[in-house]
């Protein structure tokens, strides 16, 4: 009987892991399909941006709401409903005949993805006990780490061989398998709040506040030359912060709140949240810029880039189960702290390798250390986040960790992007004027490069009309070095973010906090 029970537990983990993998993969997998979508939909990258933004926004906004519903009415029910919703939306997205349907479908898909992600850790914690729980959470952490990093490889292969709809259709058969396994093998948790009133005010305020903050960051990302005080940016950000402050005040006075604010009075939980934010802002956001470097400047295809980025993602597969076992013996506090320090060293190594002649051979040592950090910290973060949390709040604890990880990723993409843009423009301003070109030509090229941004500068510099100009080679070298200057700066910034995460872990995490058994 014990063997049968153990087998069922691991099959249940496979079902939950499959759902989480699909949900997180769809955050990044669309990036590599955008060039094909531009052609098929006869539109621009700007119009397609909402295919990405719709998922990011709705995903972040829904995390806490789905977590609370799972805690109240049963995590398996909400997880299963989210999984079915995700599969149906994926099928609709694959058949989308226009951008409006695709954008709406991506938003619906994000609701399903957030439900799967926010409840997976709590479900694993309630389906396993003792040492098996640490191992299972470690494996789930591996899946989380691999899913985000695997987007370029999986997406690139599917798009190149089967077209962009395949990145959505592939979710259908795997989703159906996950639904069947979930129904049969995943154990339901108690409906802790079935007699409570749903905190509709808290859900509304949290959704509006998070939406406004993240949308403001997205607006800033798309318009880097708009100042932070520009009302089109600051209006959203300030409004979102005000709503979130009202949310906190309201939660403190509601008898049955959506979020128990007492959780944030525990230094250990605050430390876990800081690590989650640093992981998103430092490591996950950096993948966007690393992919652009490898494709736009080194010249690898999407699939070639994805294969090389296995240098990062493979460590999640290797280390997750090992970390799950080690976490039962050694202090998670110091394992997390040391792992983040290793990651910061990896970023410094990559920063030193970046230059006009950079290749994968120069980047891989730093990428390996970055991958080890991701492979170590994600599983440990899951386990540490569940420690000391009451059983009826495990879903919300999981949701909060994912909110801060996602918020960190969004802040990181915008913040690191602004650092890159600033340093890129500064280098252009200081060097384009020394090429001996007419002033009008310098001004025109500079404007074109700045408007296009670092990602697209290479395309402008190596365009056919520029190639035959007498100053072409010198101009191209300036553009490449300007990109390298910005890329190096943002890589050092990522190292600092991860280092701050390490300091937060070292100061706030507890060595052996008491775990609450279910």
Automatic annotation (TrEMBL):
Gene3D superfamilies: MFS general substrate transporter like domains, Multidrug resistance protein D. Keywords: Cell membrane, Membrane, Transmembrane, Transmembrane helix, Transport. Signal peptide: none annotated. PROSITE patterns: MFS. One of its GO terms (molecular function) is transmembrane transporter activity. It is a multi-pass membrane protein. The keyword DNA-binding does not apply. This is Drug resistance transporter, EmrB QacA subfamily protein. It comes from Secundilactobacillus similis DSM 23365 = JCM 2765. The lineage of its organism: Bacteria, Bacillati, Bacillota, Bacilli, Lactobacillales.
């Amino acid at each position: 009987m014990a063997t049968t029970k153990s087998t069922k537990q691991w099959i249940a983990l496979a079902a939950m892991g499959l759902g989480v993998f699909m949900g997180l993969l769809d955050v990044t997998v669309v990036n590599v399909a955008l060039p094909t979508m531009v052609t098929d939909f006869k539109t621009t990258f700007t119009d397609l941006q909402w295919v990405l933004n719709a998922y990011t926004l709705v995903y972040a906004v829904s995390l806490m709401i789905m977590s609370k519903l799972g805690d109240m009415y049963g995590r398996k029910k909400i997880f299963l409903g989210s999984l079915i919703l995700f599969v149906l939306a994926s099928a609709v997205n694959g058949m989308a005949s226009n951008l409006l349907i695709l954008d709406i479908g991506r938003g619906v898909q994000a609701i399903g993805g957030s439900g799967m992600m926010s409840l997976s850790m709590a479900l694993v914690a309630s389906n396993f006990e003792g040492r098996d729980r640490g191992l299972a959470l470690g494996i789930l952490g591996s899946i989380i780490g691999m899913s985000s990093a695997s987007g370029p490889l999986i997406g690139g292969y599917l798009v190149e061989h089967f077209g962009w709809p395949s990145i959505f259709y592939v979710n259908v058969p795997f989703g159906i398998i996950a639904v069947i396994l979930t129904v049969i093998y995943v154990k339901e948790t108690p409906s802790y709040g079935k007699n409570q009133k749903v905190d509709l005010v808290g859900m509304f305020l949290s959704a509006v506040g998070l939406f406004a903050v993240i949308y403001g960051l997205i607006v800033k990302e798309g318009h880097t030359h708009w100042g932070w005080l520009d009302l089109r940016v600051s209006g959203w950000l300030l409004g979102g912060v005000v709503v979130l402050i009202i949310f906190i005040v309201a939660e403190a006075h509601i008898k049955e709140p959506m979020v128990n604010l007492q959780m944030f009075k525990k230094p250990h939980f605050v430390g876990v949240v800081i690590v989650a934010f640093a992981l998103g802002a430092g490591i996950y956001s950096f993948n966007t810029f690393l992919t652009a470097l490898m494709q736009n400047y080194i010249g690898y295809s999407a699939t070639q880039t994805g294969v090389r980025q296995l240098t990062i993602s493979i460590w999640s597969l290797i280390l997750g189960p090992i970390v799950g076992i080690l976490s039962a013996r050694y202090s998670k506090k110091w394992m997390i702290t040391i792992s983040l320090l290793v990651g910061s060293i990896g970023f410094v190594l990559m920063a030193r390798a970046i230059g006009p002649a950079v290749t994968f051979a120069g980047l891989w040592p730093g990428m390996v250390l970055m991958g080890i950090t991701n492979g170590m910290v994600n599983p440990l973060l899951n386990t540490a986040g569940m420690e000391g949390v009451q059983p009826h709040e495990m879903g919300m604890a999981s949701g909060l960790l994912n909110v801060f990880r996602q918020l960190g990723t969004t802040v990181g993409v915008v913040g690191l992007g602004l650092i890159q843009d600033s340093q890129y423009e500064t280098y252009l301003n200081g060097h384009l004027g020394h090429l001996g070109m007419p002033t009008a030509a310098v001004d025109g090229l500079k404007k074109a490069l700045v408007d296009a941004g670092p990602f697209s500068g290479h395309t402008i510099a190596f365009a056919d009309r520029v190639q035959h100009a007498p100053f072409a080679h010198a101009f191209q070298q300036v553009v490449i070095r300007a990109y390298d200057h910005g890329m190096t700066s943002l890589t050092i910034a990522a190292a600092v973010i991860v280092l701050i995460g390490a300091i937060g872990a070292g100061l706030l995490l507890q060595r052996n906090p008491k775990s609450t058994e279910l």
